[in-house]
Design a protein that fits this description.
910 residues; alpha+beta; Rossmann fold; 4-stranded parallel β-sheet; 25 helices
Amino acid sequence: MNLVIVESPAKAKTINGYLGKDYEVMASFGHVRDLPAKDGSVDPDQDFAMVWEADDRGGKRLSEIGRAAKLASKIILATDPDREGEAISWHVLEVLKAKKLIKDKPVERVVFNAITKSAIREAMLHPRPVDQALVDAYLARRALDYLVGFNLSPVLWRKLPGSRSAGRVQSVTLRLVCDREREIEAFKPREYWSIAAQLKTAKGQGFLARLVGADGKKITRLDVGTEAEAMAFRSALDEAKFGVVSVEAKPAKRHPYPPFRTSTLQQDASRKLGLSPARTMQVAQKLYEGISIGGETVGLITYMRTDGIDMAPEAITGVRKQIGVQFGDRYLPKVPRKYTVKAKNAQEAHEAIRPTDFSRLPKDMARFLDAEQAKLYELIWKRTVASQMESAELERTTVDILAEAGARKLDLRATGQVVRFDGFLTLYGVEIEDDEAEAEEGGRLPAMARGDTLAKDKIDADQHFTEPPPRFSEDSLIKRMEELGIGRPSTYSSTLATLRDREYVRLDKKKLIPEDKGRLVTAFLESFFTKWVDYDFTAGLEEQLDKVSNSEIDWRTVLRAFWEDFSAAVGGTKELRTTEVLDNLNELLGPAIFPPRADGLDPRTCPACNQGQLSLKVGKFGAFVGCSNYPECRFTRTLSATGDGEGGTEGEKPGQRTLGTDPVSGLEVTARDGRFGTYIQLGEGEKPKRSSLPKGVTLASIDLDKALALLALPREIAKHPTTGEPILAGIGKYGPYVQHGKTYANLGNDDDVLEIGGNRAIDLIVGKETGTGERRGRGAAPAGRAIGDHPEGGSVTVRDGRFGPYVNWGKVNATLPKGTTPDTVTLDEALRLIEARAAMAPSGRSASKGRASAKAKPATKTAAKPKATASKAATAKATATKAAAAKTTKAAAPKAAAAKAPARKKAAAS
């Protein structure tokens, strides 16, 4: 028996079907080991020796893999074809070696770019050893992230209470967002005017021409800066006579874009489909791992974590064949197109993201896919096919026009463009995609010749103001990160998700806005750790890690050079006083925290006492702005100020904002930072109405309308398709949810509790009720498929779990016997397994009590017991409870120290 080890159970199931009975395919469920969340996991004094540890889940999985490896004749490591995949194979191999389970058994590493029968069988014919250079690059990257997280985060906690941990790449990405915000705040709008003439030919055909010159001088976009200048040009044009000076038509070509790589897929999916980068990768993972088509699971796309944009020769042959069949030879270039990556630090070991079979048309696949999968597959299919099609042939026409108004000679220009041959644009309905150079060009111009006289229809003079640079969207930030060489494609989505989870940035109308705490952290790092948030330094470090993966440099050499300077910088902050830190932040963030006041006074003058100076303060819940005359003056406000610089009221507590008054009750609505997070409160009193804030909404960003909407939760958003009962949306202890009766389903990261629609809510509820709801995370197992109903009510499903396949009925889970696969189990077999498992339940817990979806039984009234008996029972219960509590405390004591590690890991994770 050959043991094949992959990452996810979905892959294991598909690959097992391809390889046959001589192979056993097991999933590692992602990484099986990691650095323990404690000091010393990476020891610089021992030449960066690293301590690895498996958690409970990883340990159990490794034990199962070990038992299978002991019986196997060959071990085949078939994890993903990237650095992380190589690292997982290395971890598994190291554990098996430590347990002495390898001995003389052959160990092979195979990689495949697509989960198809041909790709997997071909990979099995070309094994190789584990690539130690890729593993070394992983070790260096993991050690760097650990050293930054465990050394820099405590500095932040001490100097900026309320701040959370800082990651190596996340901190630099956060700086990009904060720097853009500073550009926006420092921006000074500039007035300019555009002059355009609506003209028409002798045949009455109209077109638009713009002023481009006057009296022999060229006029650019910003050259007409005042209304007086604009009106002077307009008056001259009103009196002018117009004639055509020249007509020039030039052929041009528009070439297709290369196939998708990870970053461009995330950018296009965000722009065209509205999917977040994280959601894009989740959907792409499913398309890669396989979709059931005609009873067979088939991978529809190639591996989706890649920097490469080229395709394998057989793929190019396949796509060219499809183009010829579907569009004809006119759309097929004589020579296949070859693409190379222009981005910094590109690793081109992998193919571009492409369909595995180009004959699987999007319209044919749509019935096997959900809406998001179908849209993403179509996006990938079109982009890949277009990349090997003929260029579009255009004709760009420029008409120069002279306007003579007495002694003045004014130059105007009209431009137009027509498509002579659509080429690859036929895939997009002959639509020309975003291009700033072409956005100003019109369509077809009327026929004109030199010397033609033109008539004036209307002269327009329009006022404009320059605009600040736009805030980053997730796709534009990824593009910028790629341009600078920051991070890697496989980490872009997780980096952005981390910044949002830590509430360093928020997403508002698809734009990333830095939160106060994010700006504070960035300002602190720029002041005291300048080098380590420098864009060029971070990109240079990535280049060194790439050299490690190419066997050009030793990974410990990279770590030594980094650690020498970094540890000195960390040590230098130990003597920093809080006042010194705040002075630096006051200076760096001054324009944002203290904007100019409308009355022209010093923006740092306290608006309450008019004597003290406003400055940053540090409190229990983080930083805020307060008056230097405290305690005589108790004026405070949050960091974000309103335009007039008076962002608070006298006596308002730090970490609290007054939002306004509820028009119905007349009570005051406030936003507050509390012990367990930020919340909204209506009025005061013993039990005022409150609502938690959804993730991404902060004290500074919440407004009255949104606060009232949150206080109105839960709200009805749909009717259940079967019962007709309402489905509600609300926020609970574990975050936003939708509810139908006693069924609750958590909202996804991309769902908004105030905006979620009926269709999405129904999908979540029905998925939860039937056991087919979505699971999140790389390598997550599918929730299961229904195989029938239990005689007592409720659906019976078969599922792939963390520790193998099992059948489920409500809260009863029964593991499938060895040799039984999820695809072959029948309802009768499942019922027997559930009955046997229910019989093993602890006394007092029957099967019907254990299932979540069992029908409610009517309550049975019982006669009241005598008081003495009741008192005796209560005494006995209290004694038993006390004994159980003591036993629990005693048992839990040795675990107290261990329990701290996961909490610290969560805080210091990079």
